[in-house]
Design goal:
By secondary structure, this protein is α/β, with parallel strands linked by helices. The protein has 13 helices and 11 strands. The strands form 2 sheets. A 7-stranded parallel beta sheet has the order 7-6-5-10-8-11-9, sandwiched between helices. The chain has a 4-stranded mixed beta sheet with strand order 1-4-2-3. Helix 9 (about 150-155) links the parallel strand 6 and strand 7. Helix 1 (about 5-15) crosses helix 6 and helix 3 packs parallel to helix 5 (about 60-65).
Length: about 270
């Protein structure tokens, strides 16, 4: 492939748009790390590389061909036209789709719920943190950023293809379903009554009225700017704050989520 203005190149580039993604049922995966994981675990239709990137990442090309995924070689100009952020490694995959019912059928012990989270980098980083902490799933409410936004996909660094991510849910019904499945629902908020460190101290033997991090838990995280609304906090079994020991006003969403998820992961070991 040598023409950066070819229709195929334009079609791949157009997948940055949500409407185009939904109409095509496909999304773009950019960069060697994400493409490597997608080829191993996702429904990938095509992989695009340059001669140089194919030599640099032979495992990607080898895995793609083993799974009978079409591998296309193009010039640097072609790959850059498809994705200026792809480092000359790009894939096109079918949109992922998971349901809350299927997640709950697996008896999850740790779930992250993102309510009204709009920043693509934050959403993707939380998916990556959830994967690293051993969470069973992530849920994005209908008011959150599109999971297949290219920046979200890049920010997951391949974790999007490691655990189910449910999208488009309603927060109240999601909380009800999680609680009915036996999970304690905790809202993470700076105004929380419970201190996360205190909960870790009593994990496994928490007194009555105190959340036990050793139990199956769903964490609810709110918007980057305003956090969780009062009515959203009221849905949870308890509201928990991450202690701030220095002079920082707060932690950003993805950092706070990472701290909370790892606290639960440690308590559940």
């Amino acid at each position: 492939m040598t023409n950066p203005r070819a229709e195929r190149v334009k079609a791949v580039r157009a997948l940055v748009g949500r409407t185009v993604r939904q109409r095509a049922g496909r999304f773009v995966v950019e960069g060697p790390q994400s493409v490597r994981e997608a080829v191993l675990a996702a429904d990938v239709h095509d992989v695009y590389v340059t001669v140089e990137s194919a030599q640099r990442y032979p495992e990607i090309v080898g895995a793609a061909r083993e799974r009978r995924i079409r591998v296309h070689t193009g010039t640097v100009e072609v790959l850059d036209a498809m994705s200026p952020d792809g480092q000359q490694v790009v894939a096109v995959a079918a949109l992922t789709a998971h349901t809350l019912d299927s997640v709950l059928a697996g008896a999850p012990r740790l779930v992250a719920v993102l309510a009204h989270v709009r920043d693509p980098g934050n959403a993707g980083t939380v998916v990556r943190a959830a994967d690293a902490a051993g969470a069973d799933a992530v849920v994005l409410t209908a008011q959150s950023v599109d999971l297949h936004n290219p920046k979200v996909v890049r920010s997951t660094a391949g974790s999007l293809f490691h655990l189910p991510v449910v999208t488009g849910t309603d927060l109240p019904s999601t909380v009800d379903a999680l609680r009915a499945a036996g999970l304690t629902v905790l809202a993470a908020d700076g105004a929380g009554v419970h201190d996360l460190d205190d909960l870790l101290d009593v994990a496994g033997h928490a007194p009555a009225g105190v959340p036990d991090l050793a139990r199956p838990t769903a964490w609810v995280f709110g918007n980057e700017a305003w956090g969780l609304r009062e009515e959203d906090r009221a849905l949870a079994d308890a509201v928990v704050r991450v202690p701030i020991r220095g002079r920082a006003e707060s932690l950003n969403l993805s950092t706070a989520a990472t701290v909370c998820l790892y606290a639960s992961s440690r308590a559940q070991r």
